[in-house]
């Protein structure tokens, strides 16, 4: 064995100046790579209480009588045979929706002033910037279901604080003037119907267009057939992630996406209340496994000895209120000569009406705090011609001014 003195000496490693400075640099140095937001698994919301606590939505179970629910399901199955898959341009190529869609409008009385009828008609006959066929009226079963949905939505909205730009409502039939409690604040005059077949038909993350339903819209989504799931995801912005809470708060804690997972069983009404479209995106993801749906009542014309068929189909009907103050005649047109779409400020840039309000610390219930302090959410009109014009549009952009455009009435006076 050779002695240590006779062993060859190791060549010292050369350390560059950058490597040496990296050893001395503090971990929180400004030029170090910033760490991303923490990632959490989706929060599964299985009960109405959990949905109401963590999202601006409410979930209502078994809202229709079983016979009506089955009759509406069979009616939509028959109607959906002629529904189409929507196509539009996205990033210089044509894309197609992975499910079939159609629009229906509610039959409105002839004594209507035309505003409600016109708003409903235009909301239904234009989709993704494309002129479509004139939508048909609600089928009989859908009209019956709509009455149940309207009662539930109006009752639920009366329990909640209103946002200033929400629709102010109108007197109920037979109500005395000045009776605010009897105001009809929401009524469904348009229904967007979707059919999802099997486990793979889905729809990606999106928000519903506000062009004709206006700011802080309320949308009632009725699900029939096989069970499904819905994932609302908080938009990128500033949120407090403590305990995976999806209740949006105005803090500087974390920037990122938080996702929840709503389990939608059969015959469920999910109401996306005001602020949902402004602060959340939602999707219907593909399913790994689905449970076939067997209706509790037989379809029309089925012989007594024949078994009730099963379905792998989910029917979704989203009832919407197309506001008369957002009638198509009031929609600005871009340089392309095409009606614009209304977009909310998705990055939560809020303008405080008073400078001293911005110095107030955030409260425990930020949703009520934001309403009470009068924080105004910004909206703008922008070109959408590229959705159907081979991806070509213009750079038209205009901030919505509700007073100059003659919008309203609103839930509160707009200053």
Automatic annotation (TrEMBL):
Chain spans, region Disordered: 1-41
Single Gene Ontology MF annotation: dioxygenase activity
Gene3D superfamilies for the chain: Alpha-ketoglutarate-dependent dioxygenase AlkB-like
GO BP: any one term: DNA alkylation repair
UniProt domain Fe2OG dioxygenase: residue ranges: 187-323
Pfam family, one: 2OG-FeII_Oxy_2
PROSITE patterns attached to this UniProt entry: FE2OG_OXY
Protein name from the UniProt record: Fe2OG dioxygenase domain-containing protein
Lineage: superkingdom: Eukaryota
